[in-house]
Design brief:
The protein is mainly alpha-helical and 88 residues long. The protein is built from four helices and two strands. 62% of the residues lie in helices and 5% in strands. The chain has a two-stranded parallel sheet with strand order 1-2.
């Protein structure tokens, strides 16, 4: 699936900051989830909202704070998409 160029650049930058032993699985899982999200939105390309949604849907709680920090450092504005979602 096609990716928005800016989104892909930010995603690659973020992946490069993830500890090497988690990098491969993160790349695989988040790419798959982001592409599924774009498909569900009937979009021809993966956009920022899809990557953000993918990260928030599959990151185990022990890595949550690191994920949020890396999203911010990589230029992803997750708050404009309503993340983090309220609990309950």
């Amino acid at each position: 699936m096609q990716w928005d160029e800016t989104t892909q650049d930010k995603f690659k930058g973020m992946i490069s900051k993830i500890p090497v032993f988690h990098r491969g699985i993160t790349l695989e899982v988040v790419t798959k989830k982001a592409e599924e999200s774009a498909h569900l939105r009937n979009s021809a390309q993966v956009e920022e909202v899809d990557v953000v949604s993918a990260f928030f849907s599959d990151v185990p709680s022990p890595f949550y704070s690191m994920m949020v920090r890396l999203l911010e450092q990589s230029g992803f504005d997750y708050r404009k998409y309503g993340y983090p979602k309220p609990q309950g």
